[in-house]
Amino acid sequence: MSEARNLSEQVYDFIRRDILQGILLPDKKLQIETVSERYNIGAVPVREALNRLSAEGLVERKKQRGFFVASLPMKDLEELVKTRIWLETKALSESIANGSEEWEDGLVLSFHRLARTSRRLEPDSGAALSEEWEIRHKEFHMQLINQCGSSWLLGFCSTMMDQAVRYRNISMHVGPSQKRREGAAEEHKEILDAVVARESALACKLLEAHYQTTLAALRTVDIELQPAED
Predict the structure, then answer these.
(1) What is the residue-wise DSSP string for 37-66?
(2) What is the DSSP-derived secondary structure letter of residue 29?
(3) Residue 19 near residue 53 (C-beta atoms within 8 A)
(4) Closest by Cα among 80, 12, 2, 22 to 52
(5) How far apart are CA 12 and CA 1, in angstroms?
(6) Contact, 121 vs 133, CB < 8 A?
(7) What is the pTM of this model?
(8) What share of the chain is helix, strand, coil (3-state, %, to 5)?
(9) Digit-coded pLDDT (tens) for 10-34
(10) Of 76, 152, 162, 188, which shows the fewest CB atoms inside 10 Å?
(11) Residue 100 in contact with residue 196, Cβ under 8 Å?
C-alpha cells in the first residue's frame, strides 16, 4: 500500500509538472497505458494520479472517453485573472496590515532571488532555469500575501497561480515573451517598494495592473493549440 502511494505521488508530480510547463498540451488525451509507458509507472498509480489532477482542474475526465489535459480557452483566463485580482488584492492588503519585519525581510529576499534568476534567464535558457524562475516567481507572489490570516485564501490563490503558469508556459512555446518577463521584473520591484512603504492602496493597484498587463500580452497568443483527441 505504501509503495503504491509513493508511485502515485511520483507520477502525480511528473504529470503535473509537464502540464504546468506546457509539455503536455491542452486537450491532449491521457491514455492510461501511454502515460504508464511515458513515466515507467504502473496503471493503478497513474489512474490515481489522474483522478487527483482531475479534482484540481488540470485534467478533465470525460464520460466514456477517458482523461484529457484540461483545455485553456481565453475566456477562462480572463475569469481567472479577474478572480485573482479580487482575492489577491484582499490578501495583500491584509498582509500589509498584519505583516511583521520578518515578513518584510522574507519578501525582500524572495524578490532578490527572483531578480537574480531573471537576470540569468536568456531566450535560449534551458528548461531547468525556466522552471527555477517559475518557482521563484510563485514564491515572491505567495510571500506578498502569506500574512493575510487565512489558509483557505492562500490555498485558493496558490491554485490559481498554478493555473496561470500553464497559460504563460504555453504562450512561451508558441510565441516567446522574453520582453514580457523583463517588463514584469520592473513591475515586481514597484510592487515591492509599495509594500515596504506600507502603501496598501498603491500596492494593490500595482498588483492589479501587473496581472492585467500579463493578460493583455497573452491575448496576442493563440493558446488553444489543438482539438481534443478521440
Answers:
(1) HHHT--HHHHHHHHHHHHHHTSEEEETTTE
(2) B
(3) yes
(4) 12
(5) 16
(6) yes
(7) 0.76
(8) 75, 5, 25
(9) 999 999 989 988 888 888 999 999 9
(10) 152
(11) no
